[in-house]
Known about the structure:
With 280 residues, this protein is of the alpha/beta class.
Amino acid sequence: MQNGTLYVVSTPIGNLEDFSFRAVEVLRGVDLIASEDTRHSRPLLDRYGISGKLIAYHDHNEERAGERLLQQMMEGASVALISDAGTPLISDPGYSLVARCHAAGVRIVPVPGASALLAALAAAGLPTDRFSFEGFTPRTAAKRRACYEALVAEPRTLVFYESSHRILDSLEDAAAIFGESRTCALARELTKIHETILRGPLSEVLQRVREDDNQRKGEFVIALEGARPMPDEIDAETRKLLQTLLDELPVKQATALAARISGVKKNRLYQLALDLNSRQ
Ligand code: SAM
């Protein structure tokens, strides 16, 4: 292990076998392991023969513990940061420690592995070329609804973390705000015995969760299809094309040519052309 380094190490999100060889090696070799909950981490570490010294690092002692850890790394200690499950900093503590290390010139080494976010996305069957991770939904109904409303037009796939206490209300709100036909993939208890992935229109997923108490137990990731473009919406590229043609040609010709190139109906482009011309 390199001295004066912070290793950010992912741990399993359920199935204890989802622990990389490298993660185990790093945890065996470091001087200190900063863990969100030392009692929670111990059984996992014991299982892999990791006997390193555990130090508590969580939301409530972030400032003080972070300062001490930074000091130790600056004096040459190698430290690994782990959270209760998955990847540290992903809806888990660590951000301020990593930022401080960068500022102090301490080397940061990520040791990637499980994360509920990526496991859910990989199994959701929704576009993943771009997505927006929204973390935990707000706790109160009013704030959750406001959050959903602000995302209604977001075209990227949306991913939320949700707790079992709020899963039903959260899906009810999602169906009311995003619309019942939006495709949802609800990933529950990933990598564990009761793993389930319910996928379909929000109305159907909601129905399954309403009918079956078991579907409200455990840990959840909600993945939602992004907003679909309006079928007759004129995209930015076509607007640009029309504008370029309008700079050189009369409205009728520019419209006809733009319609031929883009496939958008002539009368829609004609309206837009008049609009664009009137702004010049
Ligand atoms: N850092 C973790 C990660 O990389 O996934 C996330 C930690 S966050 C405090 C815990 C939340 O992640 C849970 O409430 C749940 O929404 C989601 N989560 C964690 N493990 C999960 C699992 N096995 N199945 C489904 N969701 C899970």
